[in-house]
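Sequence only, no structure available. Ideas?
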Amino acid sequence: MTSTSVGLKQSDHKILEITLLRHKEDRTTENFKAALEALIKVRENLANSVYATQSKFFSPIDNPSEIYIFGFWPSIAAHQDFLANEELSSRILAPQEGLLDFVWGHHVELPGLDDQTGFLEHLPLDAPLVGLLMYNNSRDYESWGKSYAEYTNGLKLATKGYPLLKGTFCEPNDGESTPDDFVLSGWNADDEAASSEGTPWEKTLIILKDLEK
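Reply:
I predicted one. Tokens follow.
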């Protein structure tokens, strides 16, 4: 659980951190258990010494070597301060060292939440499957056009009432090669998630499963 913070748009809003990690070695039952136990320990360390991020851990159903982490921070500054404290962050993150590689991290504003409101009820992370669609707005939205609008507008019906989160990453966009927007949705079954088949984003939608279930 780590991230880069260079060039972040500053905000006092509550923040969702989305981080992608990758197993250092071929995933086996042994190193899967070790990595998951390490992440759970890091979550515990954060709650005891920094902030209760309520982090949840997912893997793509078609790529189990990757782990997506969704965690909650009170602000971008709070996360930056944690990462800038090398002694503290090294101690907190120590359990995952040697097991997982950092790939990327993004932050998303969650306006409207206060200190008494947990973020999980606003996200579809309790669904059996979670769909993560990341896209570059200037590149993809125009080409996806009406099909994309119909897809996102219909998601609330298709996903059986799970919360739907659409947002923009706080990180600066470095061109059309990187995503800047995303849609997070919940699904009850794999065949429902496959409803993206035949769409322009069929190969872009990532279907995730909770590693603790």
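The beta strands are 14-23, 56-60, 66-73, 100-110, 129-135, 165-168, 181-187, 206-210.
Hope that gets you unstuck.
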